Amino acid sequence: MEPVNIALYWDNLTLQQATLPAHHVKQGERVHVMMPEKAQQLFLDMVFRCPLSQDDTLEQHVWLSNGGQKVLAGSDAFCRHLACMLRQRGLLANLTLKENLLLPFLYADRKEDLKHAEKALMDVVEFLDMQDKLDEKAGERPPYIHALISLGHCLLKKPSIVVAQDVHWGMTEEHSQRFQRKMLCALKTWNPGILYLSSAVPEHAELPFQRTCTLEGDVSSNMEWS
Fold first, then answer.
1. What does the domain layout of the chain look like in residue ranges?
2. How far apart are alpha carbons 148 and 143 in whole angstroms?
3. What interhelical angle do 97-108 and 143-157 show, nearest 10?
4. Residue 71 near residue 63 (C-beta atoms within 8 A)
């Protein structure tokens, strides 16, 4: 079994007129970062930007550490260890829910990862209570279904670090509570590090945060709190 030594790090980051202090989240930890939605998008852009090559370290302010080895954002190794559950969720309406669940693995074009996901698919679908919906076209779905698909991606991948952004946003109270139970149960199966981005203290995401950090400086200019 792979040792628990993966961590996501970032330097001091300037996000418009404010600064997010350098920090990190290790595998198994829960870290809450509170900042406006616009700042979250800037931060996520840094997490998912791709370098031109592994030698291109220019402006690489976010990285993974694997046993002391620096793994740059956008690299294949980086993508293998990190998954996301974003507020701006998206399903491809013309695909089935099954196809949407497997979509990240199809895009990645790694045959072994796709085979592993296909093998684990039915167990994940049963956990999500989506057995009777798999072959339905995605079409328009409520936020709860979008969140389940995001959670399904993580369960199929079992990454070392999950970046979550206001996961419960837009749900009814009933759906939020149901999703919370599923998410907490799922996290126990592989215990990833969680970096939870939100614009306020989460009302429904009752994760045991070890630490909370916030932007420092002027967070009012050109940056509305959502």
1. 6-217
2. 9
3. 40
4. yes
Beta strands in the chain, from DSSP E residues, in sequence order: 6-10, 13-15, 18-20, 23-26, 30-34, 62-66, 69-72, 82-85, 161-165, 193-198, 211-214, 216-217
SS (H, E, C) 157-218: HCCCEEEEECCCCCCCHHHHHHHHHHHHHHHHHHCCEEEEEECCCCCCCCCCCCEEEECEEC
CA angle 48, 44, 146 (to 5 degrees): 95
Could you count the other beta carbons within 10 Å of the beta carbon of residue 180?
18
Largest CA distance in the chain: 50
Determine the Cα–Cα distance for residues 47 and 187; give it in Å rounded to an integer.
22
In the block, tokens 């969680």 appear at 194
Return the beta strands (E) in 21-108 as ranges: 23-26, 30-34, 62-66, 69-72, 82-85
pTM of the model: 0.85
At the top level of CATH, the class of 6-217 is alpha beta
Comparing C-alpha atoms, which of 213, 154, 210, 144 is closest to residue 178? 144
Digit-by-digit pLDDT tens for the chain (226 residues) are 444 589 999 999 888 788 999 999 999 999 999 888 888 888 888 887 755 444 554 456 889 998 778 888 878 888 889 999 987 667 889 999 999 999 988 877 778 888 999 999 999 999 999 999 999 999 889 999 999 999 999 999 999 999 998 887 888 889 988 998 898 899 888 899 999 998 877 655 567 788 988 888 765 544 443 3
CA–CA distance from 76 to each of 48, 53, 143 (Å)?
Answer: 12, 11, 30
